[in-house]
Each structure stands twice: as structure tokens, then as C-alpha cells.
Amino acid sequence: MSKKIIIFILIFISLFLIDQYIKFLFVNGFGVDGSCISLVLAYNKGVAFSMFAFLEGNLKYIQIAMLLVGLIYLFSKKEIFDSYYIPASILIAGGVSNIYDRFIHEGVVDYVYWHCGFDFAIFNLADVLIDIAVVLMIYINYKNEKAKETSTQ
Question: Could you tell me which of 107, 89, 87, 90 has the C-alpha nearest to residue 98?
């Protein structure tokens, strides 16, 4: 097994377990009410901003299919995997953790509620991990494109 696959798996397992542990705390009663940010339990039956909640139980199967297609693509293209294995492991950890919630809790366990000046969506660590992964992928792509430009000049 290559070093990159081992790192991919370790990042995935670590982040998945951390996210699930935090969610476990909230499901079992942890919460803090703050003036700007509250840590409160909420179950999201949809995706971002509760979109597609009307899909109910089918949403988790759609998400699994999308995740499997992404994994097949990632592992079938060695050059893609080699460039994006770290952000991909972060993204997949967040995605799998949220999908797991849908099976266990019938909705994604959210708990960070921003309400300072304006109400913002309630979210969780897995959501933040997915955002970080996307930013890292964009950065890596930008860096790779810049490297190609300088090597062709």
C-alpha cells in the first residue's frame, strides 16, 4: 500500500471519528447559548440551508451514489489522486460523517448556530471540513496551473 493511500485513510478515519465524537456530545445533551454563537443541537433533513429536505430518506442514497462516483474517479486516475489525496480525504470524511448521521439520526447533526447581527445557517465540523477541502482543491489546482504556465514559457 502506498504512503499516500495510508495518509488518505488515516486522515479520513481521524476526521470522521472526531466529527462523530463531537456530534455524540451534542446528541447527548451538550449545548451552550452565546450572544453571537450558540452550540445547540439541530437535525438537518436536507443539505445546505435545508435544501432538498423533501427528498427525505432518499437523499442519503443520492449522496452515497455521488460519493462512490467521486471515489471511483479519484482512485482510477493516479495523477488526480496524487495531487488531491489530502483534500479528498478531508472532503470524504466530512461527507461520509454527514451521510452516516442520516442513517443513525434520520438527519445531519448540526450544532454551530451563528446569530450575531444576522441569522446564519446552523452547521457542523463536517460541513467546515468539506469547505476546507474545496478551498484546498482550488488552491492546488491554481498552483498546478501556474506551474504548467511557467514550465511552458
Answer: 107
Is residue 101 flagged as an active site residue?
Answer: no
Name the pTM for this structure: 0.92
Q: How buried is residue 37: exposed, middle or buried, by Cβ count under 10 Å (0-12/13-18/19+)?
A: middle
Concerning whether 127 is annotated as a catalytic residue, the answer is yes
- Which one of the listed residues 33, 82, 127, 131 is annotated catalytic? 127
User: How do the pLDDT tens digits run along the chain, 153 residues long?
Assistant: 699 999 999 999 999 999 999 999 999 999 999 999 999 999 998 887 677 878 877 889 999 999 999 999 999 999 999 999 999 999 999 999 999 999 999 999 999 999 988 888 899 999 999 999 999 999 999 999 999 888 877
Residue pointed to by grid coordinates 504512503? 3
Q: Which of 82, 101, 110, 131 is catalytic?
A: 110
Residue 106 has what DSSP assignment? S
Residue with cell 435545508: 50
